[in-house]
Amino acid sequence: MARAQSLFLILSLISQCFAWTALIPVSNSSSYIFLKQMKVFPNVMTVCDRDTTFPHCDISLNRNYEYRTLPEKTMDMFKKAIDVLPDENVFLKYDDDVIVDYQYVLSVVKDIESNGRLYFGDPMACMGAATGHNDARCMNGKFYGVSRPIAECFANLVEDSDIVTSLEDVFFGSTVWAKCKYLGFQYEASKESLIWHKVYQNRNKCASLAFKGDHETCMVASGIY
Predict the structure, then answer these.
(1) Helix intervals (H) in 55-191
(2) Taking the CB of residue 217, how many other CB atoms lie within 10 A of it?
(3) I need a labelling partner for 131 at 20 to 30 A (CA). Which of 41, 113, 185, 200 fits?
(4) Are 123 and 136 within 8 A, CB to CB?
(5) Is 187 left (phi over 0), alpha (psi -120 to 50) or beta?
(6) Distance between CA 211 and CA 135 in Å, rounded?
(7) Measuring CA to CA, which residue among 116, 173, 181 is closest to residue 144?
(8) Which membrane topology describes this protein (predicted)?
């Protein structure tokens, strides 16, 4: 127990020492109350479309987006984040239907900060034709992170003509490889057992993180009604 408490204290100090931000794109249906319960909340920057009526928008973009234009949203998000957060060294991107173990988040931040040239996440193949190299890796959009030099390179060099897919994570990873491989960055795979996407389940807890019904449906599904 004492060892675990010491580790948590060390990781908490890491959270205070490192300059990092978790970018979370939100919509009108996103739960601000849920986000406030997450331990990463002090480092969260919510990202909103132009007409989003979310209760609290930290970064407001100049356009509205739909599923097929999420690459444009990713491009605009990083351009804006780099501009308004000049002192951040680590950028994490969360979907709003994801929970990540907090101590693991802090260890990821430490790895990215210490490396200085790291692209972290759940690896998947990129588009060989777009990247010019079949060994390039894209990280699943649910949760990934990059060092500032990679984020800056992407934000400064990406162009509208680079968008050749509607998949924002494939677009980001492919563009990072094509435009930023001169940085000599490294890939690091995430530990998926510490990341919950769409559904959280641990022992006697099970919850939908992407619920699309109404209050009554939720109550029935939970066995409360």
Answers:
(1) 70-84, 102-115, 128-131, 148-157, 168-180
(2) 12
(3) 113
(4) no
(5) beta
(6) 36
(7) 173
(8) Single-pass type II membrane protein
Place of tokens 């969260």: 44
- pLDDT score, position 105: 97
Domains of the chain (ranges, CATH numbers):
2-195 (3.90.550.50)
Residue 205 neighbours by CB under 8 Å, 6+ apart: none
Does the pTM exceed 0.85? yes
CB 175 within 8 A of CB 154: yes
Q: Considering only the C-alpha atoms of the chain, give the largest distance between any 2 of them, rounded to a whole number of Å.
A: 58
Averaged pLDDT, groups of 10, the chain, 225 residues long? 52 64 94 93 96 93 96 98 97 96 97 97 78 76 98 97 94 95 96 96 89 71 58
β-pairing, 205-208 vs 199-202, is antiparallel
The identity of residue 47, as a single letter, is V
Given a contact cutoff of 8 angstroms between Cβ atoms, the answer to whether 96 and 25 are in contact is yes
Token pair belonging to 108: 């990821």
